Structure formats: structure tokens, C-alpha cells
């Protein structure tokens, strides 16, 4: 049982103080910023190109993006986050072969999940018409969703490979492959949308092809590099038992992330019920795109916190895990002050990046102060969600998000938009209030976390689960 001991004092040479921890978190976060932003820019660039096709095309793609996020991408993204707990703690405990085992089982699981999602996307147009969306917008959204199906499968594999490498701090292969895929995507999308005149369908197809390129590059690295020799993704007798462990953390991870993600996408769908739905949908979609693009910066710091926290808990170092959580939060706070200031200063020109419609650009300018405030709130909740993934208390995060958004934020958003007639501004204010509630509750949970208990549970799960998973 010596291997299960949790240090109760200092954490030895692994904890060199706040400055040392800041370097460790930054080493993970900085490449992750480039990686996550590059991956997200694939869809952002497609949306920007679609915006130049006209307001109807942009509205259809915006609605389709919301629906596919709700029913597919958010679910896969959330479930993949389970590997941050499982692989991160296994790496900290030096159970290297389990990292590849967990990842193999996760790939099988998510590919199976993709099948019913694909079938659902085929009926996007009919579903949108059924819930009262504009028929012309619904038709455009249906075309976009069908062409987006080939992107679903590589997206699932990509998210798992990212977590697999992240928990081992193998960051630069992800950075290089993501940038390469983005550089490939830009001319490819231009050719498909404008040269071949595939329109929004070409944009969706380009996203899928770019994701596949990213997956192929990463898979080649994982398969042949000596850096992954101990953690190679191979089939073994432990793969199927690991699937059950993956779903144990994957389902609450998905619920935690989806409840938040769905609240934003629900607001986009609600905007289609407002007067002048094309304008409201387009503007809120632009705001959501900007917020999501920035979100991946604090998310990267959260990934740094998740990796450091899970590694230290797996190694039995609770104080080092606690320090990592708060150091990452401090770094993210500095970044968001700079980002929100820059966005507010550029409020007059931001809207024109998504099209030439003056009415849309002016509306975006009015929304920018609220959007800047939203960036600040989202920064802190991204950090505390990262801590949740590292410690493994995603189930608490799920309850927090349910209360913050669906008891608080969404009802307030609907009241401001439809009762007080604040339209899109009301919807966005409600979302910001929900995010603020979420941040406050997650911060309190983090503050009162028993780090020694979390470290003990992580070690027990890894070393006492021999009846189900073989530990070398």
C-alpha cells in the first residue's frame, strides 16, 4: 500500500513554488492556445466566407452550426474530456500503458456515438421547420448539416488524440498539425465555396477534410514517435473494461460541458423567433463565434490546470495540485483583461469581418460592450471547469451548470428578450448572468476542495482497480 500514500506536507522537488508552477502551466497553455484556436478557426473561417454569400446563407449556417453543436460536437467534446481525468491521473501515477488503453476504448466509444448523431443531422431541415423556424433558413441549414456529417467522425478522433497528448505534455505535435490543417483549410474552402460554387455545403465539406488531415498527421506521430512508446494506443484485453470507466467520467463530463454549450446555442435558436430573425440570428451568431474563439484561450489555461492538477493528484501531491489550479487562474485573468480591452477598442470594425452588411456591423458594435464583459466571466468559468476535469468532479459541474443556466440564465434571457423587448441584447445579458452564476459556484467548490481526499481517491482508483484493469 506504500504506492497509495498521499503526501500531506510539501510536495518535494515537484513543487518549486508559484513561479515554478507558473512556468509549468505556461508551458502547457501557450501551445494549447495555438492548437485550440487553430482548430476552432477552421469553422470560424468557413462562417466568415459564408457571410460573404449573403444574409440568408449566413443565417442558415448559423442555425445549422447551433443545432450541430447541440446534438453532436458539444457531446463529443464533452465526452472526450474524460481522458483529461483518466489519462492525466494515470500519467501522474506512472501507469503509462493505461493511457493508450483508455484512449483506444474512448475512440471505439465515440465512433459508435457518431452513428446516431449522423442520422439525426440528415433531418435538420424538417426539425427546424417543425419547431417554427423560417423555412428558407431551415432549408439552408439542412444543406449545411448534411455536408457537415463527414466532419463528425474525425472531430471525435481528433479530440481524443488531443487529450491523449495533452496529458503527457506532448504539445508541439498538436500545434504543428493544427496550424497545418488551418493553412490547408483556407484555400480549400475558398475553392469549394467560390470556385466550385458549392456554397455553404462546400464550407462544411472543407471543415471535414481539414479535420481528417489533422487526424492523419497526429495519428502518424502517435504511431511512430519514440515519445509515445510507453503509452502507445494499442488493443489489449483491458480495452473493453476501460470503456466502462470512460463512460463513468465521460457522461458527466458531457453533461457538464453540454449544459453550458447548449445554453448558448439555445439562445441562437431563440433569436430566430425574434422580429427580423435573419438580423438577430446573424448578429448573435457572430457574437457567439467571437466569444467561442476567445474562449479557447482561457480554455487552454484550463487545460494546463487540468493536466497539472490530474498529474499531481495521480502522483499523490495534493498541495501541488492546489497551487496549479490557482496559478493557472491568475495567468488567465491577466490575458482576459488584455483581450476584452482590445475587443472593446475594435468594436466599430469587428462586424465587417463577417460580411459587408452595415446593419449587421452596427448591431455588433452595440453588442460589443456586453460581449467584452462576457469574455471576462467566461475566462474564470473555463479555468474552474479545467480544475473540475483534472480532479474528476465533473458530476458537481453538471449540477452547477444546470442551475446556473437553466434556472437562472435562460429564463432571465427569455424574459428580457420577449417580455421587456430587449431582443438580442436581452438574450445575451441573460447568458452572461448565467455564466456569472456558474463561475461563482465553481469558484466556491474549488476553494473548499479537499485536495488530500482527491489525491487519495485518484490513487485508489488507479492502484486498487486491479480486478477490472490490469496494472503493471
TrEMBL record:
<feature type="transmembrane region" description="Helical">
    <location>
        <begin position="245"/>
        <end position="263"/>
    </location>
</feature>
<dbReference type="GO" id="GO:1990961">
    <property type="term" value="P:xenobiotic detoxification by transmembrane export across the plasma membrane"/>
</dbReference>
<feature type="transmembrane region" description="Helical">
    <location>
        <begin position="143"/>
        <end position="162"/>
    </location>
</feature>
<feature type="transmembrane region" description="Helical">
    <location>
        <begin position="426"/>
        <end position="449"/>
    </location>
</feature>
<feature type="transmembrane region" description="Helical">
    <location>
        <begin position="283"/>
        <end position="302"/>
    </location>
</feature>
<dbReference type="GO" id="GO:0015297">
    <property type="term" value="F:antiporter activity"/>
</dbReference>
<feature type="transmembrane region" description="Helical">
    <location>
        <begin position="399"/>
        <end position="420"/>
    </location>
</feature>
<feature type="transmembrane region" description="Helical">
    <location>
        <begin position="56"/>
        <end position="80"/>
    </location>
</feature>
<keyword id="KW-0812">Transmembrane</keyword>
<feature type="transmembrane region" description="Helical">
    <location>
        <begin position="174"/>
        <end position="196"/>
    </location>
</feature>
<dbReference type="GO" id="GO:0042910">
    <property type="term" value="F:xenobiotic transmembrane transporter activity"/>
</dbReference>
<dbReference type="InterPro" id="IPR045069">
    <property type="entry name" value="MATE_euk"/>
</dbReference>
<dbReference type="GO" id="GO:0016020">
    <property type="term" value="C:membrane"/>
</dbReference>
<feature type="transmembrane region" description="Helical">
    <location>
        <begin position="101"/>
        <end position="123"/>
    </location>
</feature>
<feature type="transmembrane region" description="Helical">
    <location>
        <begin position="27"/>
        <end position="50"/>
    </location>
</feature>
<keyword id="KW-1133">Transmembrane helix</keyword>
<dbReference type="InterPro" id="IPR002528">
    <property type="entry name" value="MATE_fam"/>
</dbReference>
<protein>
    <recommendedName>
        <fullName>Protein DETOXIFICATION</fullName>
    </recommendedName>
</protein>
<feature type="transmembrane region" description="Helical">
    <location>
        <begin position="202"/>
        <end position="224"/>
    </location>
</feature>
<keyword id="KW-0472">Membrane</keyword>
<feature type="transmembrane region" description="Helical">
    <location>
        <begin position="323"/>
        <end position="350"/>
    </location>
</feature>
<dbReference type="Pfam" id="PF01554">
    <property type="entry name" value="MatE"/>
</dbReference>
<comment type="similarity">
    <text>Belongs to the multi antimicrobial extrusion (MATE) (TC 2.A.66.1) family.</text>
</comment>
